Amino acid sequence: MFEAYVDSLQTRIPERPGAYYAHLVVLRRTDSYAVFRTDGELNTAHVQAGLDDTQKMTRLTIFKRKQTTPERLTGRELLRRYGVYDQIKEELGRDCAYNDQETGFCGVCPDCVTYGYAMSDTGAEKSKVYSDTAYSLTSYDDSHESFTLNAPYEDGTMTKKGVTSNRFSQQDHVKPGVYFPGVLTLRDPTALGLAYVINNVRRSRLYGAQTTRTGRLDNQIVALIFADGEIFANLKLTQRVHDLTSGGGDVPSAVLRAAKELVQQDGVTCKVVEGAALDALLGELDATFTDADKLRTFLQDYAAQTREYAERIGVGGARKARAGRARK
Ligand SMILES: [Zn+2]
Questions:
Q1: In whole numbers, what is the pLDDT of the chain averaged over residues?
Q2: What pTM does this model have?
């Protein structure tokens, strides 16, 4: 995997940051009516429309956790299906549970090491995946509709434990076809780690409330930028795409053009993988990720790599052996 890009990748997961960055330029597009909100209202931001177009505009936003949580959960369910957690349980005597203080994070699996965790007793690992709030390309006024969505519970009723759902109420929804350009950054990736994150991004569809079928996003990877530092923010990318498409034009090509243009201003060394080279790379990944045996082998290989890292930093042993050991 990524044979042509070995110089841009770490050969093993480092203990300290080494200025290897893989930035995925991802164009997300709503595929259904969606609700990205906190406290009952869609999240919005009042910002400048473009870099050239200095008018103000209210945009819809998707906070970073709303982007990365569904993606890490996609990875976790694959790890479970293909036996990685069974193996950890068998060999280390522990399970890994997401946001469940009782069971806790295992600290050694691809999910814990890649996306990070914090536990009161077992310490913490910083996420190696960085994202930022994503902004809609089009304005709030052009991107939402208000209507009542009948959203029953799993058993088909609108009541749960005697309480009737309030989801009958009038609500703002993001319309289908709204674009959210953005960058997802992986720090110090190995080839396996990068492939793991890309697979999660490409497989994830459901980003809204977990109880409904709304909130579907289609994720298109427009470019992969290997760099030795941070690059432009999501808002800047969206604003530049706004300038490029205000007279009409293809959004995915505008995102690519904007990304290539902006990264030149970031003062980093970089290698942009796009077009045919990107297609070839994603095609190669597809060959692994659409074959159950190859996918299982891939996940086990990456799990061996994350476990080796966890052991190196002192999180890898059995739970008892780890007790009392101070984390540096
Ligand atoms: Zn884990």
A1: 89
A2: 0.89
